[in-house]
Amino acid sequence: MARKAVSMYSQDNSGIQPDPIRGSNVAPHNRIDYLTHAGFHKLLNGVHLPNFYRRWSSSFVRRLESLSIGSEWREAPDIMQFWEGPLTASLNEAFAGPVLEKLNPNFTDNFNKFLPYVHGMMMGLPRWCMPKAHKLRDGLNEDVRQWHALARAQFKESDIAADGDTDPWWGSTAIRERQKILGSVENWDYDSIAASDFGLLWGANINVHTAAIWTIVEVFRDPSLLSRVRAELAAANVTDITSPEDIERILALPLIQSVHSEILRLRVEVQSVFTSETEEIRINEWRFPKKSLVLVPTGPAHRDPNFWNTRDGQFPLDTFWADRFLAYPNDPRSGPIRKSEAAITKASRKQTQDNTPKYISAGMNDSFMPYGVGERTCPGRFFARREIVAFCAKIVNELDIQITSTETDFAISPAFYGLGTQRPLKNIPFKIRRRKVVC
User: Fold this and answer.
1) What is the pLDDT of residues 359-385, one digit of tens each?
2) Which among 312, 417, 389, 43 has a CA at the least distance from the CA of 204?
3) If you placed Cys at 424, which of 182, 226, 303, 410 could pair as Cys (CB 3.0 to 4.6 Å)?
C-alpha cells in the first residue's frame, strides 16, 4: 500500500466507536478504523452472519465431496496442509465470491504459502531479505486488483440474490459496502482498496482453520473421545452442517463446546494491544501513561495453575483435556475453575439423579481470552466458533482418520507466536478414509 494511503491509518485518532474520541478532528469519511470495524461487526456477528455461515458451509461441503477420499485408507503427509486448502478457499468464497479462484486457480495455494511470512512482513523486512514473501504478496495483491476490476465492470444490482446479500462478483454486501467506504477515504485509490481487501482475507483466514484442524487432531487421536463425540452428534441428530437448525444444535452440545474451548485455551497465543491517546491505561492494578503501547499475552492467563482446574495435576495445563470446561453435577472436582478443598467438600454433599455435564464459560473473563480483550476483541469470533464446531462435526460424522505422527506433544512453530492460533513445527502425517457407516 502506498505511503500516503497508509498515513490515513496513523492520522486516524478517532477510535472505533460510533462517536469519535474527544479531541479528534478526523473527518467522518476518513474514520477508517471505525468504518472498517463496523463493517466487520455487521458481517461477522450481525444481520449478515447467517448468510455468511451458509455460504461458507455450502462451499466447504461441496469441496469436501470433491476430495479424493475413498472407502480405503489413504496416507497423507500433513493434516494441516490437507485441510487448510478447502477451508481457506471456502472462507474466501464466503467473503468475496467465486471470482478470485476462477481468475487464478492457484490463489488459495499461494495464499497459504504466504501466511508463515507474516512476522517478517509486519516488521517491514525489505524485499532483498524476503524475496519469496514479497513475490507472493505482489501476486496475491494483483489477483485481488483483477477481481476488483472485473467486479466493478460486471456487477449489477440485479445480480444480488434473494437473500439481499450474496452476489457472484463482489460476493457479499460487506465487500460491496467496503468499496464505497474505502473509496471515499482521502489518498486512497483502487490499489489501496485492493491491498486492504487482501489484508481482510489474510486476517480472516490466519487463525480459524488451524484451530479447527487442531480440534480433529485431538478428537481422532483419542478413540474414547471420538466415540463420545460421535455419540453426542448422533443423539442430537446432526446430519447437515449447512442447516441453520443443525448448526444451532451443534453449538449447544456440551462436549463439543468443551473440546472447542480447550483447543483455544491450549493453542491460542494472542498479544492484545492497548493504547490511549487521551487517558492513562488501566489493567487490573497496573497503570500506564497515555500514549503507551501495552501488550498483554494470553499464554500466562491460559496456563495459570492458580485459576485452572487440573484435577490435582492429573491434567496439566500444557496438555489437552477434552472435559476441562465441563461440570458434572455429581463431581465437585469437575469444571474449568480450580476450587478450594472447602468448596469441594461442600459441593460433595449435593448429589442429583441427573449427572449430565454442563458446559461452563462464565467467570473466566480475566483468564480465558482467546479472541483478545476490550473493544478490539476479534469481531469474527461468532463465525469462528461456528466454523470450528461444524468442521469437527462434519469430519467426525463422515470420515475415519488415524493420526500416524510419532509425536505425543506437538512442538509449536515460532512463526505465528502472538498472532493467534499456534501451528505445529513439524508435519502431522495421517491416514484417512470415508466412514463405512455414517451415524
Assistant:
1) 999 999 889 999 988 778 888 899 999
2) 43
3) 410
Q: pTM for the whole thing? A: 0.93
- Please write down the long-range contacts of 344-350, taking CB distance under 8 Å and 24 or more positions apart: none
Least confident of 88-97, 181-190, 206-215, 277-286: 277-286
Phi, psi at 269, each rounded to 5°: -130, 100
Three cell numbers written together for 155: 456487477
CA distance 337 to 47: 34
226, 242, 49, 175: CA torsion to nearest 10:
120
Closest to 278 in 3D by CA, of 290, 292, 286: 290
73, 431 Cβ separation under 8 angstroms: yes
87, 212 Cβ separation under 8 angstroms: yes
Amino acid (1-letter code) at residue 174: A
Burial class, 333, CB count within 10 angstroms (exposed 0-12 / middle 13-18 / buried 19+): middle
- The alpha-helical segments, DSSP class H, found in 123-253 are 131-154, 173-183, 190-205, 208-220, 223-235, 244-251
User: Which residues lie closer than 8 Å to 100 by C-beta, 6 or more apart?
Assistant: 92, 93, 107, 143, 144, 147
Half-sphere exposure of 117 (CA within 13 A, CB side): 19
